[in-house]
Amino acid sequence: xxxxxxxxxxxxxxxxxxxxxxxxxxxxxxxxxxxxxxxxxxxxxxxxxxxxxxxxxxxxxxxxxxxxxxxxxxxxxxxxxxxxxxxxxxxxxxxxxxxxxxxxxxxxxxxxxxxxxxxxxxxxxxxxxxxxxxxxxxxxx
Length: 141
Fold this sequence. Notes:
structural constituent of ribosome; ribosomal protein; rRNA binding; 4-stranded antiparallel β-sheet; bL21-like_sf; 141 residues; rRNA-binding
């Protein structure tokens, strides 16, 4: 079982007992966090896609530690001008472990069928309303 979930502005494919490095979270180390923006859920082959998110689905995770990532060097140069700038930074990260994926809402397959039937009726109604096009008359010059 896996899920596509949005954590701190980024999307991750997560499953149970997976360790993930995400952008720094405000929670303390050792606390449990719940993420509600689950976009896709795969439960042993049955895939549920949200529009945009699946209602009632959530991912629970535990904050393991706060740390800094590897150093990233930013180097700017303009050739033949003598312009060089070197800068760098280390990103603040949080390591979390996924404790579980839970779904409490029923699937909305019946709602999709209704919308398809309504759309088909609207298309047929639009075809009936259209008037036939007038034929062009042949002109001679």
